[in-house]
Amino acid sequence: MLNTNISTDKKPALFLDRDGTLIEDVGYMKSSNLIKWLPKVQDTLKVFVKNKYLLVVITNQSGIGRGLLEEKDVTSIHSKMNEQMLDLYGIVISKFYYCPHHPEAIISKYRINCLCRKPGKLLFNKAIRELNINTKNSICIGDKLTDLTAANAAGIKKLFLLNKIPTKIRPVASFQYTTIKSWDEFQSKL
């Protein structure tokens, strides 16, 4: 599935959710000290970078609007994630996009129904435009159906749901996606 013969000015991207997909979901992460990468994430990302894919993280961070953390906390965590990736694997995430909004936010400037909060596609569209991304060859992996819904709406059709909890009932969506249990399984599907 990984396209190694890409001959266009536009680059493909691996779109990634953050919490529960790249790193353990610890709730509203306020400190970079809490970053714990999921097994095999870096090895897989290295394969994508080698094959000229951009790495793009798109994450909902409603903890900002809820007053549990600040935007500077989120940007600090993203900087630390990139530092760790560069130090250990020689790669960097091309760009992080985050939505601080929530319809029930306690901080009024963040209390909106926006299109950047997944399942809205605004941040995907922004990344596609800013980074000149080829959506046809791009891939998205997330741990929630809202991640995939946003990616699909933005034109990304290679979608993977990282679902570590075995279930008999597959989450219903109006589009095709593949369920995986681990980054090892994701690599085996490429």
What are the main properties of this structure?
190 residues; 28% helix
The topology string of helices and strands comes to EHEHEHEHEEH
User: How many domains in all?
Assistant: 1
Count of helical stretches: 5
What is the CA–CA distance across the termini?
A: 4 Å
Q: What topology, given as strand order, has the largest sheet? A: 3-2-1-4-5-6
Largest sheet: 6 strands, parallel
Give the beta-strand count: 6
CATH superfamily: HAD superfamily/HAD-like
CATH architecture type: 3-Layer(aba) Sandwich
Please tell me about this protein's structure.
With 190 residues, the chain is an alpha/beta fold. The protein has a single domain (13-188), classed as HAD superfamily/HAD-like (Rossmann fold, 3-Layer(aba) Sandwich). 28% of the residues lie in helices and 15% in strands. The chain has helices at residues 41-50, 71-89, 122-130, 145-153, 183-188, and strands at residues 13-16, 54-60, 95-99, 139-142, 158-162, 178-180. Strands 3-2-1-4-5-6 form a six-stranded parallel sheet. The model has no long low-confidence stretch (mean pLDDT 92).
Question: Outline of this structure?
Answer:
By secondary structure, this protein is of the alpha/beta class. It contains five helices and six strands; from the N terminus they run βαβαβαβαββα. 28% of the residues lie in helices and 15% in strands.
Note the topology.
Elements: E1 13-16, H1 41-50, E2 54-60, H2 71-89, E3 95-99, H3 122-130, E4 139-142, H4 145-153, E5 158-162, E6 178-180, H5 183-188
